[in-house]
Design a protein that fits this description.
By secondary structure, the chain is α+β, with helices and mostly antiparallel strands. The chain contains 30 helices and 10 strands. The strands form 3 sheets. It has a 5-stranded antiparallel beta sheet. Strands 5-10-9 form a 3-stranded antiparallel beta sheet.
Length: 818
């Protein structure tokens, strides 16, 4: 039988089973088990295990290394793109964490509300810090200890679940990076995904059990809620948001001037501003400059403005809602399973809970943590290339409020102006309840997870990619809370932590290498021959193996020679003979082999040539039909994930640019704080000097001998055409005939201060000059002001910052924080 199993595996293009390569079989069997976990067939333990072994042959045929048809190529590309998405998601998470940290701090810096010590702390966030040297890399003994420790953490999610509840909000991002993108970082691998969901179940169960504030259980900003939000940002969640919401949001934001504000106070203020503009700054006596919210709400002109806006707003919200409700089958399994746990735990916590209360809890996760953040900030969720302008941004916020009110029907006391949208809530509450309950209708994965865990014992390539600082920070958190996580002396985790010793110190960024850490368990006996083990436990006979192997080889032959699969019925003898007489040695070998296998099966009475092997032909035909359907599914998923991957890459570029902008600003404030800016002047904003006027800080001005000043950088010259091509100039009133004679000179007389001078070739004086302060540019970017008006040309704010960054920062040989 062992020989038969060896030839079986070889026939799929895999090497013979051995301790070093049995993981090939493991992967296929585990995939077969996982592939069936949504079917809801409810197979019992041993039957399900037997089914998984049988399904292995189909899975092996699907992923055959020797077949190069369109399906095999597409599956290979799909595996590659899933791996890339998982890796890139981790990189983006780290960048987003850095940007989020600086975002709030930069805002305070701009407003001069932050101390010098805090400025230095922010700068240190990106400086080399920590220990350094060749001895920071763990030796083989340490790597084995860490491999055993992280296997326990990965395969027994209760430890991580406890830790997630114990850490502070300040510590959670560091832990989330390791949990979401390293420990369970393979976002499309069934075992890791199911273990992660098990961890969520443990966290939620404990949260429900200990919570006294039932209503705000999933709405408060806690480490657990941050963890759930981060989970929705992984590849499958991002793919769903892009496919369902991106087009709706894009269509809305194209209408930049569509103002659907319904807050009476804001409407009144906008109305007053318009009247002032139309009347040269003068208001009629009967229109006061400011009024209370009640007065604004009762003003007839305000009501007349709001009514048509309200109607249109409800129509748009209905459109968004209909699109979301129709997408239930596209919602990622993991998100639906979490919804199922929330429903179950809510009913367990409060058996008398009404359907309204239960659905409100589900909506608190699905809408508040998943859908609405993407609606409100589509740029951050990679659904748009740019931040929406003011009016569409406000409309998206109002739509999100309406969806959230529909999901949980809160009190309207805090936002009375939303009361007119109440009919939208009342008219759709049955639809939303039905949708939220349908989300929960997914089967559990415990049976296939048991199989996956069993398979893990035979894997020799069970690895994670983890950085040295991730190892150190995880061990540090575990040590801090070890008495709660593993209180008993003989707890395996405590034993491993004791052996591992003190958490390694954080290393300098340049030394923070990522290592491939092999995971294993020293308490479990590795399975050397997986197929034999599964057969012995599940009553799989040698005849079963022979039959399944024969079917799989025929499928392989037809995939390699597609013309053999045409016609109304398959001629198995002809297919085997044709393969055996080709010029391909592998096909010849398989053709000869499968002829012998046909005769052997007939001798056993399993098939009969007199009915043209009817049973075997039917199953082969079914398998080929399945593979044909599978090809379409794989190609569709491949197209979707390739789009998601491109979006994630673009978001990575955006985050890096944002980070560089912040670093440039930090360089400026540090130089000024250390005395580089001797004038001690605050930012004076942006001013334009027309032809004939000399700016006081421009090169060549009185007080700057020989037109130079110490520390002045530039001028650096760019043509009109060059800046237009790079997107820096987004509007131009310069006649095309004169554009070739126009150039721009960029100079930095002081750190963080820049002068853009527009010149006409052959003329000594600039046509105009603009004085820019970096903090003003960043503030404009934060306020979504996209245009800098230079009278003759309009400049894109973000592109200007990038150009200044590239032109001046990269020329500073001292580095970023010298």
């Amino acid at each position: 039988m062992v020989d038969r199993q060896g030839s079986m595996v070889q026939s799929y293009g895999y090497p013979t089973l051995s301790p070093s390569n049995s993981q090939v079989v493991s992967r296929a069997v585990a995939a077969a088990a996982a592939n069936n976990h949504h079917s809801g067939k409810g197979k019992g333990g041993r039957n399900s295990m037997r089914y998984s072994v049988s399904a292995f042959y189909s899975m092996a045929a699907e992923q055959d290394n020797e077949v190069e048809d369109e399906l095999a190529q597409a599956q290979r590309r799909l595996r590659e793109i899933k791996s890339k998405i998982s890796a890139q998601s981790k990189k983006n998470f780290v960048l987003e964490r850095d940007v989020r940290y600086l975002d709030s701090r930069i805002a305070l810096l701009i407003q001069n509300r932050i101390a010098l010590a805090e400025q230095n702390e922010m700068a240190a966030h990106f400086e080399e810090h920590g220990v350094s040297g060749d001895d920071v890399y763990p030796d083989d003994r340490k790597l084995q200890q860490y491999g055993n420790l992280f296997f326990i953490l990965q395969s027994e999610p209760r430890h991580i679940a406890t830790l997630c509840r114990l850490v502070s909000l300040a510590e959670i991002d560091t832990l989330l990076q390791t949990v979401m993108f390293t420990l369970y970082g393979n976002q499309y691998e069934s075992r890791e995904e199911h273990l992660l969901l098990t961890m969520f179940q443990n966290v939620l169960a404990a949260q429900f059990e200990t919570s006294t504030e039932f209503g705000s259980l999933l709405r408060a900003n806690t480490p657990v809620s941050r963890m759930m939000t981060t989970y929705t940002r992984r590849g499958p969640g991002q793919a769903y948001l892009k496919s369902v919401l991106a087009e709706k949001i894009k269509n809305l934001v194209e209408h930049k001037d569509l103002n659907l504000e319904i807050n009476p106070l804001k409407v009144y203020e906008q109305m007053v501003q318009q009247i002032e503009t139309d009347n040269g700054g003068v208001l009629p006596d009967n229109i006061p400059k400011s009024v209370t919210a009640d007065v604004a709400a009762n003003h007839p002109d305000v009501q007349a403005i709001i009514q048509p806006r309200l109607k249109m707003l409800v129509e748009i919200a209905e459109s968004f809602l209909t699109t979301i409700l129709a997408s239930v089958d596209r919602v990622p399994y993991g998100i639906r399973w979490i919804c199922k746990q929330i429903r179950s735990l809510t009913k367990r916590k409060n058996p008398q809970a009404s359907e309204f209360s239960v659905c409100s809890m589900i909506g608190g996760f699905f809408f508040l943590r998943f859908i609405n953040p993407a609606v409100v900030t589509p740029r951050a969720y990679m659904l748009l290339d740019n931040v929406p302008s003011q009016h569409p941004r406000r409309t998206l916020t109002l739509i999100a409020k309406m969806l959230q009110n529909l999901a949980n029907r809160p009190s309207y006391s805090k936002e009375a102006y939303m009361l007119p949208t109440n009919p939208f809530v009342e008219n759709n509450k049955q639809r939303i309840n039905k949708f939220l309950n349908e989300l929960c209708e997914v089967s559990d994965f415990y049976e296939s997870l048991e199989m996956d865990q069993y398979m893990a014992l035979s894997k020799k390539d069970l690895v994670i990619n983890i950085s040295l600082n991730e190892i150190g920070s995880t061990l540090s958190l575990l040590q801090k809370h070890l008495d709660v996580i593993a209180p008993k002396e003989k707890d395996r985790l405590r034993v491993l932590m004791t052996e591992a010793g003190a958490a390694p110190a954080q290393v300098a960024r340049k030394d923070n290498k990522t290592i491939e850490l092999a995971l294993f368990s020293r308490w479990e006996i590795p399975i050397q021959d997986l197929t034999t083990a599964l057969m012995s436990e599940n009553n799989i006979t040698q005849n079963d193996i022979l039959y399944m192997e024969t079917k799989a080889i025929y499928v392989q032959l037809i995939r390699s020679l597609p013309h053999l699969g045409t016609g109304t019925s398959l001629d198995l003898d002809y297919i085997a003979e044709t393969a055996a007489t080709t010029k391909d040695p592998q096909l010849v070998r398989k053709g000869i082999k499968v002829k012998d296998m046909l005769r052997e099966l007939e001798d056993m009475g399993i098939i009969d040539h007199r009915d043209r092997y009817k049973l075997l032909v039917e199953e082969i035909t079914q398998e080929l039909t399945h593979l044909g359907n599978l090809k379409e599914i794989v190609l569709t998923e491949l197209g979707s994930l390739e789009s998601v991957y491109e979006t994630i890459l673009a978001h990575n570029t955006y985050l890096r640019q944002q980070l560089e902008n912040y670093k440039l600003y930090l360089q400026n404030v540090r130089l000024q704080s250390s005395g580089a800016d001797k004038s001690g002047k605050k930012s004076v904003g942006i001013g334009v000097q027309l032809e004939g006027q000399k700016h006081p800080s421009a090169p060549g001005h009185a007080g700057q001998p020989n037109g130079k000043k110490s520390g002045v950088q530039g001028p650096f010259k760019f043509t009109h055409g060059q800046l237009e091509k790079d997107g820096v100039i987004c509007q131009s009133n310069v006649p095309e005939s004169r554009q070739p004679n126009i150039y721009f000179a960029f100079t930095s007389p002081l750190p963080g201060t820049f002068i853009i001078a527009m010149h006409f070739k052959g003329r000594e004086k600039a046509i105009l000059e603009m004085d820019l302060k970096l903090d003003d540019l960043l503030e404009k970017q934060q306020d979504n002001v996209e245009l800098l008006d230079l009278e003759y040309v309009g400049l894109n704010v973000t592109k200007v910052i990038q150009l200044l960054n590239k032109t001046f920062l990269t020329r500073n040989k001292g580095g970023l924080f010298s």
